[in-house]
Amino acid sequence: MRLSRLLRLQSVFYNQSEKRLASAIQHMVGSKPFNLSLYKLALKHTSIAEETINGLKISNERLEYLGDAILGAVVAEFLFKKFPFRDEGFLTETRSRMVNREALNQIAIKIGLSKIIEKEFKGKNLSAHKSIYGDTLEAVVGAVYLDRGYDFCKKFILKRIIVHFDVDGIITTTSNFKSKIIEWSQKENKEVDFKTLSVTGNQRFKEFHVHLLVGGEVVAEGKGPTKKKAEQDASKNACEILNLDF
Amino acid sequence: MRLSRLLRLQSVFYNQSEKRLASAIQHMVGSKPFNLSLYKLALKHTSIAEETINGLKISNERLEYLGDAILGAVVAEFLFKKFPFRDEGFLTETRSRMVNREALNQIAIKIGLSKIIEKEFKGKNLSAHKSIYGDTLEAVVGAVYLDRGYDFCKKFILKRIIVHFDVDGIITTTSNFKSKIIEWSQKENKEVDFKTLSVTGNQRFKEFHVHLLVGGEVVAEGKGPTKKKAEQDASKNACEILNLDF
Prior knowledge:
Chains A, B: It is found in: Cytoplasm. Two copies of one chain form a homodimer. By secondary structure, chain A is mainly α.
């Protein structure tokens, strides 16, 4: 902890803009940053990154890569514990819906990160970089992890990021591909049917293979260890093929 | 830590096979398991999992999902720190080569996990499940994480798993798509050329778009923030298109 105390002492030497940044980070993360330079780097989008003499561009992309992995691990555990009776297919799907770019963009706005980013860009046009908020949020997660360690970072993610997810909303759409397809078919006045093609494997390890038919024509196929899961899988594929939004 | 001490006391009541398993886990992980049931679950491949009365199948797949995420985070940080001057594209590519199924299968054999799995299968045929070793390794990582927390699990991954990776070998193939292509062209007596099609963006944020030509014909294209990276990207795509193995 000695190094971190030393780093904290640095705050005495902050200039005005560093003081403002440190206070904004404290507000967002929940605690004063130990090493402010990590957060400065996290805010350095590649479009405003300067090139060093040897042609290296110092941007937040490496921190984004790290933050993405840490965020993925924390969200994985969060879902693992929240849904003790759901299978890994459901967990994987829900996780990828939670950490997608658009969802992270929204959360960056909610926790005030967007305001900090806009200051860094000093009035430059941000609209060319659609995913800048979400990318930077991941980089900030990486910075928090390096600055404060896993346990602190996990708390930050749980209390300040995940809390903004509409997990129930995400789950409803994750689990209901089949009902989505049926709802669509009723609206479009089409007939949807499932046909089991084959059941392979032994008593313990079965695999069902089904077709999803719309008006008698095969639209998608699906596989799974139970008939229900295979139909869900086929419905999910059909939703993608038919471009059904959620 | 009280719960963990209580769980440790359980070991007094282990039966013979549990004693053997606990000792094998200790040997592999580097410390006695607190909660042996987590490791038992980690070894429960879906093909030997039993169904409960309400149709739920208790297998290691959920733990595998969790372990995959934790392993991903630890490997991400390992590479982040090992290569302070490489960009996120290189880090992402190297990571995915490290945690792929085949690499994990090999490591499961090296650390003796395969022997434990074979005991669990009690002579049943394992050959139908190609990736069982790697899958189970991920599940074991998930079990170690839940049993002992992030810091312990990170040490386990660094000292007992990553140590077996031929990181340098992986990197050579990751970084050298361009030299691979050139080497191939010399062997095949063909002429390889790169052509820059366009450079878009402003001074700070450029994107190069290049074509890779073999004997005058376009084989692949690539993009990147520098000419070198765009050529590397095109070479990588060409390696895939031309089925050049590493």
